[in-house]
Design brief:
With 154 residues, this protein is α+β, with helices and mostly antiparallel strands. The chain is 35% helix and 12% strand. It contains four helices and seven strands, in the order αβββαββαββα. The strands form three sheets. A three-stranded antiparallel β-sheet has the order 2-1-4, with no helix packed on it. Strands 3-5 form a two-stranded parallel ribbon. The protein is globular and about 45 Å long. The chain starts with a helix and ends with a helix. The model has no long low-confidence stretch (mean pLDDT 77).
Length: 154
């Protein structure tokens, strides 16, 4: 339930499918129709890549506020771990875990999901502001550096 609370706090709708991965829980938001990025369509690739990076970063920030770790999957090249597979990244996950799967049947348009993580607002002075937090991008970057430094000291 904590992971679901993080998704909700991040402003995301309920995932279409959830399951245990062997080291946590995975949520999958299904599109209502396939999203295709044609070879050579750099504009679409960049749009989707930046949006998914913002999606993962928002989840990571929200989890960190609760003192939790979130392994972001915002990189388009990351491979999805299939339900029932074994997570070998840590000793506690070497044994196969029972798979819990919940299918809501919900589907979303790309635009609906990306509305949860709008692009930064560009200002005439060249600065950018996160429309969800009101922070400048520089403030957000400085805060993340401070959090990382705190974690390294701990």
């Amino acid at each position: 339930e904590t992971v679901r609370a993080i998704w909700k706090e991040a402003g995301y709708p309920e995932p279409s499918v959830t399951w245990m991965t062997g080291g946590g829980i995975n949520g999958l938001w299904l599109f209502d129709e396939p999203l295709t990025i044609e070879v050579g369509d750099d504009e679409m690739y960049t749009k989707v890549s930046k949006a998914t990076a913002r999606w993962g970063a928002r989840l990571k920030r929200t989890a960190r506020k609760r003192g939790m770790h979130h392994d972001t999957g915002g990189d388009l090249s990351r491979v999805l771990r299939l339900p029932g597979s074994v997570n070998r990244k840590s000793d506690h996950a070497l044994e196969p875990k029972p798979v819990f799967a919940d299918y809501t049947g919900a589907t979303y348009t790309f635009e609906e999901l990306m509305a949860c993580v709008p692009a930064p607002i560009e200002h005439t002075d060249g600065s950018r502001t996160d429309p969800l937090t009101g922070e400048t991008i520089r403030e957000t970057q400085d805060r993340i550096v401070e959090l990382v430094q705190e974690e390294l000291r701990a």
